[in-house]
Amino acid sequence: MFAEKSICITSTPKGWNELSSELSTIKPDDLVVVSDMTGTLITQTANGMLPAMRESQRVLLERGMMMVLATADSGHSVTEFLLKPLGAVKDEQLYVVHSVGAWRGRVDAGQLVELSRGTDLKEIDRRTLIDAMDRAICGAVGCDTPVFSEALRDDLIGSGRRFSLTSISDSFGMQSFIEILPSKAAIFFHEQNIAGSIQQKIFSDYINDSAVVQIVADNGYQLIRGGNYVDVFTCTKELGVRHILDYVNPTERHSLIVLGDSENDLGILSAEYPEFDRVLRVFVGQSKLVVDTIMSGPVSTEFFSMPGTHCHGSTELFQALAKSR
């Protein structure tokens, strides 16, 4: 969990005008893109890939762009919400890091092929986290009985499927869920402006639950609380991306673009990428923490911000790249 601290900011990040000038000089076959998925490449709704995003990505992949997807979501979500909508593309240069960096692989004929794995949450700890989620949710909405039966807990741990919180309370909004993956346990509410007092109480009660505090401390797990989510996980996106870049060793490519929209993208946005001559770090979210942290650090001159534009800002970026020569 990010600690609150005072950050001294001496300048503001560059915006679209400066970024578009940089993009106009990049050739796709000289480019690697490292990008978050949900909120950055796809929206948090059904049919979440914008048509313009789909078409520009297809063009760029055909022209030789290498892409490394770095997402907290599961492999199932990557396949359903990005690979299937993207359709048949030239995927020899398409790599995936999912489950917050714990799974690393490539795409072959639209299928995910594993290259390496990180560590998983212990099964007993996943069960402990579900118990803590149950207590937090019941405390917020006044349940008389536990939300998750033993059979449901077994299913959530075994399948990795999302459990919709809308079935518990309409106040949670659509696309609100819990997700228990081998390497991550998450509570997620649709969008930040929906995460109101009930949701924030759930977050606070959950992360302050003595059982959660204990297993995070005992096992070195990481916990991050964003505006509309809380994740407990074993790995990081940036570690997964580093595994992929070391495996691929793209020394013939000189340009790197890193895209993100949330606090859990801070790692990939601020990581070192010494193998590239030019690095553009682009943030399309609205987290002040992310902006302030990067602008106070050593990579501030490489940072561009299009606040709150999310998928629309990323689409504009990919469209500009597709037009470049």
Q: What's the structural blueprint in terms of helices and strands?
A:
Elements: H1 16-23, E1 31-35, H2 51-62, E2 66-70, H3 75-86, E3 94-98, E4 103-108, E5 111-117, H4 123-141, H5 150-159, E6 163-164, E7 177-181, E8 184-188, H6 197-207, H7 210-219, E9 222-225, E10 229-233, H8 237-248, E11 255-260, H9 266-270, E12 278-283, H10 288-295, E13 303-305, H11 310-323
Parallel strand pairs: 1-2, 1-11, 2-3, 11-12, 12-13
Antiparallel strand pairs: 3-4, 4-5, 6-7, 7-8, 8-10, 9-10
Helix pairs in contact: 2-11, 4-6
CA-CA gap between termini: 42 Å
Shape: globular
Low-confidence stretches: 1-6
| Order of strands in the sheet with most strands | 5-4-3-2-1-11-12-13
Main β sheet profile? 8 strands, mixed
- Helix/strand order: HEHEHEEEHHEEEHHEEHEHEHEH
Please, how many helices?
11
Helical content class: 25-40%
Oligomer: single chain
What is the radius of gyration computed over CA atoms, rounded to a whole number of angstroms? 20 Å
- Which percent range describes the beta-strand content? 15-25%
